[in-house]
Amino acid sequence: MAAFNFNTEAELFPAAIRKKKRAGFAYRRFGTAAEAVQFAIEQLPPDSLNGAYLQVDEARFDQNGIRSLYESSEFPLPRRPRAERAEEETTDAA
Q1: Contact of 1 with 74, CB cutoff 8 Å
Q2: 21-29, Cβ contacts within 8 angstroms, sequence gap of 24 or more
Q3: CA-to-CA distance for 29 and 86, rounded, in angstroms?
């Protein structure tokens, strides 16, 4: 992955085709891209992340791009353990 500055301000947009009530979240601005990525992966339900995108400067990241940033060795924030994330995702799906 090319160098990415996780300290840059970022904006997280819900899927354009979803109605506001169904999107699961509204537009949010974050002080750092790292906080935005962490929020998207750890706090949003998986279906809310589908179609959403992260904008950092002029770059846009879709669901897969956001996941790649989160899983990057350069990601500066502590991650929730995988087992805890997987458990939450299966609970949300039920």
Answers
A1: yes
A2: 23/48, 23/52, 24/48, 25/52
A3: 26
Q: What are 10-56's pLDDT values in tens digits?
A: 999 988 765 555 556 789 999 999 999 999 999 988 888 888 999 99
Asked if residue 42 lies in contact with residue 67, where contact means CB atoms within 8 angstroms, the answer is: no
Confidence of residue 74 (pLDDT cuts 50, 70, 90): very high
| Residue that has been written with the tokens 């990057």 in this structure | 72
Amino acid identity at 35: E
Alpha helices (H) in the chain, listed in sequence order: 20-23, 33-42, 46-49, 63-71, 82-93
CA–CA dist 21, 37 (Å, integer): 22
Distance CA 67, CA 76 (A): 14
